[in-house]
Design a protein that fits this description.
The chain is α/β, with parallel strands linked by helices. The chain is about 30% helix and about 25% strand. The two termini are about 25 Å apart.
Length: about 375
C-alpha cells in the first residue's frame, strides 16, 4: 500500500471499573475513564487508547485536557491527509508542545489501521520477533505486610515472571524485605512513583540488601539531575519512567548517569514511532528496556504486547493478563497468562478484530465523531 487516508475519527468515552482498587503513592484508583480512538480508513478500522488519568497526578495531562487537544488540534490534521507511513504522523504535531498521551492515542490508532489495511500483525509491522513475551505484574500499596504477601503469593502462583511492588515513605524497606525473604530468587523491583527526595538517599540505600532488578523513578517526575546524584549512592540500578518523554531524554539521562534502565511507555512517549526510536537507540548502546503499563484496557494492552515483542525489550514488562485489572475486558479473547509466565503476541492484523463490541457498548458513556466535513 502506497498511502492511506483517514476518513473518520471517533472518540469513545468509557468508564471501566477496576476489579479491585489500585493504590500507589499518588493514592487509590477504583475505576478508569477510558477514551478509545477509532479511525476509519480504506475500509478498515484502527484503534488506540488514551492512557491519561482523570486527575493530573502521573503527568500534567488528564482525560479532559487530552480530549481537548485531540478534538481541537490532532483530529483535523489527520483526516483526509495521505499517510505514506505511520511513522510520519507524529512529525505533523511537532508544533504542538507536550501532550504526548493525546498524540499517542491518535497515532497508535493510525498504526493499527495501517496494520489492518496491509493485513500484517502490528507486532510484525513494528519489527517484533517474539511470539510470546514474559509478563510482569505490578502490585499497588497494600494494607500491611501480610496483605502484600498474600497478593504476591497469588501472582507467583499464577506464574508471573517478575513482581513489581509500589513503595512510598513509611511503606518500603520492610515490605521489600518480606517479599524477598519469601521469594529469594524471583525478579523483584520497587516502583516509587516520585515519592522520595534526594535527602532520602541513605534510606533508599537500604534496599540494596534485597537484590532488586531496579528501583523505578524514586525522585521527582521531571528530574534527571538529582537521579544522577542518587545513582552512584546505590548499588541497585535506577530506572526512569516519568522523566523520559523521548528518546533524546533517555540519551541525556544515560549521559549524566541518571539511570541504567528505561521504562518505555508509548503513551508517555507520544506513540509508537518515538517508542521505536527509543528502542533502536537503546539496542545500539546496550540499555535494558521494558514496556510499562498504565492500567490499559485490552486495546492499549495489545499495543503494549506488540511493542514488547521487539528484541530490545529484554526485561519483563507490565504486560499482565486482562484479569489482573478487569472482571470483563473489552477484547475477546482476553489476554491470558501461560503456565510459562508469558502472554501471547497477537497474530491478527488490527486490534479491531479482537474487540468485543457488546462489552464495549456496556461500558460506553458517550462518543463523538469527526469527518472531513465537520
Amino acid at each position: 500500500m502506497t498511502n492511506m487516508r483517514i476518513e473518520r475519527i471517533e472518540l469513545l468515552h468509557l468508564t471501566m471499573r477496576l476489579r479491585e482498587q489500585f493504590v500507589t503513592s499518588f493514592g487509590p484508583q477504583h475505576e478508569r475513564d477510558v477514551v478509545l480512538v477509532r479511525v476509519r480508513a480504506e475500509g478498515v478500522d484502527g484503534w488506540g487508547e488514551l492512557v491519561a488519568g482523570r486527575d493530573p497526578i502521573y503527568s500534567e495531562e488528564t482525560v479532559a485536557t487530552a480530549v481537548t487537544i485531540m478534538r481541537d488540534h490532532l483530529v483535523g490534521s489527520v483526516i483526509g491527509r495521505p499517510i505514506d507511513d505511520p511513522r510520519q504522523v507524529h512529525t505533523w504535531w511537532r508544533w504542538i508542545r507536550g501532550n504526548p498521551m493525546a498524540k499517542a492515542a491518535v497515532e497508535m490508532a493510525v498504526w493499527d489501521a495501517w496494520s489492518a489495511a496491509v493485513d500484517k500483525p502490528l507486532a510484525a509491522l513494528l519489527g517484533g520477533t517474539r511470539t510470546a513475551v514474559p509478563a510482569g505484574v505490578s502490585i499497588g500499596l497494600q494494607d500491611g505486610t501480610a496483605a502484600l504477601l498474600d497478593r504476591v503469593d497469588g501472582f507467583v502462583g499464577q506464574g508471573y515472571a517478575r513482581i513489581k511492588v509500589k513503595i512510598a515513605p513509611g511503606s518500603d524497606v520492610g515490605l521489600v524485605a518480606a517479599v524477598r525473604g519469601r521469594y529469594p530468587d524471583i525478579a523483584l523491583m520497587a516502583d516509587a512513583n516520585s515519592a522520595y527526595t534526594l535527602g532520602d538517599a541513605g534510606h533508599l540505600a537500604k534496599l540494596d540488601a534485597f537484590d532488586l532488578t531496579m528501583i523505578e523513578q524514586p525522585l521527582a517526575h521531571d528530574d534527571i539531575i538529582d537521579h544522577a546524584t542518587l545513582s552512584p549512592q546505590l548499588r541497585t540500578p535506577l530506572c526512569l519512567d516519568e522523566s523520559i518523554r523521548s528518546a533524546a531524554d533517555a540519551r541525556r539521562a544515560l549521559q549524566v548517569g541518571a539511570c541504567a534502565i528505561i521504562n518505555c511507555k508509548p503513551g508517555r512517549l507520544g506513540g509508537l514511532a518515538e517508542s521505536l526510536a527509543l528502542h533502536d537507540w537503546a539496542v545500539g548502546v546496550g540499555v535494558p528496556l521494558w514496556v510499562g503499563g498504565m492500567l490499559e484496557s485490552g486495546v492499549g494492552r495489545l499495543h503494549n504486547i506488540a511493542l514488547a515483542s521487539l528484541p530490545g525489550f529484554t526485561l519483563p514488562g507490565d504486560t499482565s493478563a486482562s484479569d489482573r485489572y478487569w472482571d470483563s475486558d473489552i477484547i475477546d479473547p482476553a489476554v491470558t497468562l501461560s503456565p510459562a509466565g508469558t502472554v501471547a503476541v497477537p497474530t491478527v492484523a488490527g486490534v479491531g478484530a479482537m474487540i468485543d463490541h457488546s462489552l464495549l457498548r456496556s461500558a460506553l458513556v458517550h462518543s463523538e465523531s469527526f469527518g472531513a466535513g465537520r
